[in-house]
Amino acid sequence: MATDLLMIACLLSFGNVSLALQNPGFGEECPLSFGLSSCDSGDACFHVLQQCDGWEHCEDGSDEKNCTVCPLADYFKCPNSSACLPPELVCDGGDDCPEGSDDEEDCWSKECGEIYTSRCDSSGICYLEEWECDGYEYCPDGSDEQNCASKEACADSNYIRCPTSGICFFRGWECDGFPFCEDGSDEEDCRSKECYNSDDFKCESSGVCLDPHLRCDGSDDCLDGTDERHCTADDCPSPMLFCETGGPCVPAARLCDGVGDCPDGSDETDCVCTVVDFQCENSGSCVTPSGVCNGLPDCGDASDELLCQSCAEKGLWQCDSAMCINNASVCDGDKDCSSGADEDNCPTPCHVLQLECDGKCLPKYRACNGIDDCTNGEDEINCTSGGCGARQFPCEDGTCLLESQLCDNLTDCSGGEDEEDCGDVLPPGFPLGLTSRYIPDVFINASSEYKPEFAASQVRHTGYCWVPRSVVDQWLQVYFGKTTDVTGVVISGGGANWDLGSWVTSFTLAFSMDGASWAPYKGHSNSVQVFQGNRDRYNRVSRPLPTGVTSRYIRLYPTGFEGWVAMVMEVYVTNG
Asked: Cβ(572)–Cβ(427) under 8 Å?
């Protein structure tokens, strides 16, 4: 019997959102002595207070049939429906009757529910006393937030008033380091005040109260750093390490990372490295694969740079410092070695991606950038396109526009070409995550790269672009990490970070589930579809797929280009 009563109590506690009791354990009858009545279907019971309340609790809706009066006398009958509302829902500021706001009209003539003790001046809407002078206007006329400074103590004993405004705020917000009162009084004279939570840590100089978990966490949360002093092993929250010589506590992410955070170096001892990491011989610190044999010692004993392959054995070029760089970075006009040795004794003539400058070669992407790299300034001469400057867009009528005037929803060219093909109609779905870096660099590959700063991972819309070493048989590939529904791509040209005349004019796509077998995307004629690319280096173009593809990989093959292949891309999907 006690269990049955508990079931009834639970039903009542959910009010209008409860469903009828299924198989309640009373046999075939719903005992009226428990306040239960049977649905017409006979397979469920509902409480009499749920009858004619405007919500169907029986699957057959029988609890809402033939309703003319409410189950209790103090309930409000919605005039245009069978719904009945308990007093707490009448004039509470929300429309609860199904057909509209009848329960919120003429509130001064209606009684407030027992839980409400205050009314809005104009509307008569009922609200809790605790909502008065809490800094948030509940009443449409704002009367719950008026004359607060003249009122006595806050309704809730756990709240106190700001002296000037009279607004009530939670005691735990006093001296927490974040002013709540407009006059900042809640953060004044904190050294003389007790913290609301007895376990809080009080900063010595300011008296600010800190959550105990911020004590000895390796970060100074007090301005004077006292929360990180005199730490013991017991003060360190798991899984942080306590430095053996008296702190501080070091986060787990900074253990065995090759950088000593503890004064005694104890955060870098007894390290267990992963199978791909290199472990320093003396300290035991771990070095990631990219830090091994890169010409820069990460271990204190430089053991990560001993017994390494030479740059030549790796197919790379060696700087004076023993650092290895890509061969494509030699004599490209950029100093990749700290000494600049990679740009000494460079032969001429320069290749197609370079300009001759002072007897050396300068990358084209550094020409016409407003900076004189050549002593005679020849890299900034003849920087025009259609009679416009290198950083301008030529209209067909001869007008020159700034790049910021393109695709800004304002027509500046008389023919309107500055607002054409702006990628406004994006493919369905949402961006996969190239721009947001949800897709990691290791998931983005290409057939080749001109230099590391123009690698495949630079295809993101974040400033740089992908540039291959050649323009023949090149491709860009993205791995999604899981099976994904692709709806299209958005691409743009090399922008201002590459040769001013470079972009992809056409391309094809291919898809794969395993990264080995590729299926080219075909159009309605069952032939490989060639997509139109960009018309300049500035604007992005949107290319939705006529029919979406479910895949794990995508490849883009440039089939046409202007100047050189240079591009950025985003993939659009409907699941992620």
From this structure: yes
Reported as a single tens digit per residue, the pLDDT across 376-432 is 888 777 776 556 765 567 787 888 877 667 777 788 888 887 777 665 678 898 888
Structure tokens at 400: 């020159």
DSSP 481-492: EEEEEEEEEEEE
3-state SS string over 108-121? HHCCCCCCCCEECC
Torsion of CA 554, 500, 413, 411, to 10 degrees: 50
CA separation for the pair 459, 141 (Å, rounded): 54
pLDDT at residue 8, rounded to an integer: 45
Domains detected in the chain: 2-67 (no CATH), 388-419 (4.10.400.10), 430-573 (2.60.120.260)
Average pLDDT over residues 36-54: 80
Cα(266)–Cα(243) distance, integer angstroms: 6
* Residues 358, 532: Cα–Cα separation, whole Å: 40
In whole angstroms, what is the distance from residue 250 CA to residue 263 CA? 11
Average pLDDT, the chain: 79
**250: which 2 tokens?**
């070091």
Question: Which tokens in the block code for residue 442?
Answer: 């290791």
Burial of 39 (0-12, 13-18, 19+ CB in 10 A): buried
Q: Which residues pair with 478 in a beta bridge?
A: 444, 554
CA-nearest of 42, 29, 38, 35 to 63 is: 38
Within 10 Å of residue 67's Cβ, how many Cβ atoms?
Answer: 17
